[in-house]
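Hi R.,

Here's the chain you asked about this morning:
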Amino acid sequence: METTAKIFACTQSTALGKTIANHFGIDIGKINFSRYSDGEFQPSFEESVRGARIFIIGSTHPSSENLMEMLLMLDAAKRASARHITAVLPYFGWARQDRKDKPRVPIGAKLIAKLLESAGATRIITMDLHADQIQGFFEKPVDHLFASTIFLPYINSLKLSNLTIASPDMGGSKRAYAYSKFLSSDVVICYKQREKANIISHIELIGNVEGKNVILVDDMVDTAGTLTKAADLMKDRGAISVRAVCTHALLSGKAYEKIEESQLEELIVTDSIPPKVSHPKVKVLSCAPLFAEVMKNVHSNQSISSKFVM
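And here is the predicted structure, written out as tokens:
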């Protein structure tokens, strides 16, 4: 008997979930959240999932309620006898805690991986992890997709001359070189020092950007401090224009104000995290077609290796 595919979404990813389901070719599943006065909540599937392959879509960015929703839905699916339970996390939250960078701190990404598996996930689909090694924290299959398949066509459509790809820090150099390979462009790298999380004390540029159209590439943009400082530095060094491509738009704190006041011409992001507000400098590209295609191939046991290539 053929396994039925069903798609459900956590509340923070409802709009994205509906779009993915539409591209997949089915209606999004019905789920209800009961809430108690103290803030506790309980999800319930309003249709049978027995023997089905179900996909639960939800980014786990803070607050921690988003993660808790995913865990409870996974547990509910497991106890309702779903055959395959895939956690689809367009953005894998807490991924910056992928190692001990000082004494007496947790490895949060490892903990989240174990929680997802214990809750019932039999497969993980995610996009542009902050650190590739997070895949090794799971004992279940992880499909790690690259948003470059979304961004590269848009970058090509800009038809920029003298294009240079930039990494906002040393850790992102691999990503920058991968983009430059496909775009046949030069690469420059920013070196930054932090006072503490989200506070940059110094940033310096390695490479020449004079007379260049620069595109910064990164996996996420949080306070936008690094991107805007890098953009201003590159303009001061003679760049014609500076744009940024960032997969996950956290955009917390005064991020929108920094973007508005900076010399950054455009910030291109995906809808892995629902945009808080619209902004003329922020261009949102949908990741729904990518996830829908991969989910279809997973359901029909076809290859998805082409989506792992930068």
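One quick note: The helical segments are 14-24, 64-79, 108-119, 148-158, 173-183, 225-236, 255-261, 288-299.

Cheers,
M.
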